[in-house]
Design goal:
Length: 233
């Protein structure tokens, strides 16, 4: 193997092990900043969303605590949220990591958060999500994850998109199951739980050839680039 390929393989392996990005979206790929679905706006965070995201998380602490390790740092101040959203925004602009807010159509309320993360190997992305307690059970996670499945496979041209969750998290596992993902495996001692122990990690995947016929592929969406222009396949 030539030295640059070897270095790339090592850095990818390191990324997988440390949950760090393994690749960035290339110059020919369009970064999707804003997506409209039938009921939602899923878009890149702006620092001025800090009060709205704080309100959504502060009202959902007990709902999120069993599953989201970052809840240990909550509640955060508005200033801390501004710094976090600036960090998300910088990674997004650089094409390194795509953390999106989930809003109502008028963008007056944060309904949850989602993201596309390049930490599952070359040419693949993982989708993560959370929904505010008062909006759970309305199908919003399925709608947002459908949108990001399409972005990953159609706009970013990934060869595989994944959703990971604990098998104990039935509400989360239901999302990829309903969207037509394949349950490939449940890996042992592979997920850091909120109490620091290592639990099982379910791996759900979808390939480009499976998208059109899946529930995820059939949700009508409108995608926009940074300038607000429509992104076509
Ligand atoms: C896991 C979690 C994101 C699921 O969010 P959600 O929005 O409630 O999930 P869904 O989109 O699957 O919606 C759930 C239910 O809403 C109902 N629903 C109501 N209206 C609907 C609509 N128009 N379309 C689809 N479903 C609808 C459905 O009954 C659906 O359940 P079903 O498909 O099994 O019948 C949420 O519970 C959560 O934030 N949990 C804590 C954080 C977490 O665990 N994150 C994931 C870590 S891996």
């Amino acid at each position: 193997m030539n030295p640059s390929l070897a270095a790339q393989a090592i850095s990818e392996a390191r990324g997988i092990l440390q949950d760090q990005p393994t690749h960035t979206v290339g110059p020919l790929m369009t970064i999707v900043y804003r997506i409209e679905t039938p009921r939602l706006v899923v878009r890149c965070w702006s620092p001025k969303d800090a009060p709205l995201v704080k309100a959504a998380i502060d009202a959902s602490l007990e709902h999120l605590r069993p599953w989201m390790p970052w809840i240990a740092h909550e509640p955060q101040s508005i200033d801390e949220k501004v710094e976090l959203l600036k960090k998300f925004r910088a990674l997004f602009d650089r094409g390194e990591d795509f953390v999106y807010g989930i809003f109502d159509k008028g963008e007056t309320e944060v309904l949850g958060g989602t993201g596309l993360h390049a930490r599952v190997g070359p040419q693949a992305e993982e989708i993560g999500y959370w929904i505010a307690a008062k909006h759970a059970g309305k199908g919003y996670a399925q709608e947002a994850a459908s949108a990001l499945t399409q972005v990953s496979l159609r706009a970013h041209k990934m060869v595989r998109v994944e959703i990971h969750c604990s098998p104990r998290n039935h509400a989360s596992a239901n999302v990829p199951r309903k969207l037509g993902y394949l349950h490939e495996a449940t890996l042992r001692a592979r997920l850091v739980e909120v109490d620091g122990t290592y639990g099982e990690r379910m791996i759900w995947t979808m390939l480009p050839s499976e998208l059109d016929a899946s529930a995820a592929g059939r949700v009508p969406i409108r995608r926009e680039d940074a300038a607000g222009r429509m992104v076509l396949d």
